[in-house]
Amino acid sequence: MPSDPGGFAPPLQEDTTRVVSLHGELDLLTAPALRAGLDRATAGPCPDLVLDLRQVSFIDCAGLGVLCRTRNRVLARRGRLRLVIGGTFLPRLLRHTGLAGVFEVLPGMPVGVPGAAVAKTVDTVGR
Questions:
Q1: How many C-beta atoms surround the C-beta of residue 60 within 10 A?
Q2: Which residue from 71, 62, 70 is spatially nearest to 31, judged by alpha carbons?
C-alpha cells in the first residue's frame, strides 16, 4: 500500500468535477489511506466526485464502508458522487449487499466531465 494515499489534490472550487481512478483491492488494508484521501477530496462545499472503479478487482466490507462514508459526506455537503463500473462484479456486489440503488452508477466515464484532466490514480494494491 502506498504511504501517500495517491496524491489527492486539495479540494477544488464548487462546480468542478474531480475524477479519482482506483486500481486493485479496496479492503481492510487499503481502506484507511483511501478514506483519508477521499475525505480530502470531499472536504469542500458541493463536491462533485466521480470514482472510476473499473480497475478494482476486489472490495470487502471495509472498502464498501469507505464508499458509503464518501457518499454520506458528499450528500451532507450537497454534492454528487458517481461510480464508474465495468463488468458485472460491482453491480452484483451492490445488489447482494443491499446497496443497489444507493449509488449513482455509470457504465463508463461521463461524457464532457469537466476536470477529467485532473484525474488521480490511486493504486490500492501494494502488498
A1: 15
A2: 62
| C-alpha dihedral sign at 58, 60, 123, 70 | positive
Residue 18 and residue 118: Cα distance in Å, rounded? 7
Task: Quickly count helices (H) and strands (E) in the chain.
Answer: 3, 5
In sequence order, which residues have a C-beta less than 8 Å from that of residue 39 and are 6 or more positions away? 70, 73
Burial class (CB in 10 A: 0-12, 13-18, 19+), 99: middle
**75 vs 102: CA distance, rounded Å:** 12
Average model confidence (pLDDT) across the chain: 83
Which pLDDT tens digit goes with each residue over 103-126? Answer: 999 988 888 775 444 444 445 544
Cell of 92: 452484483
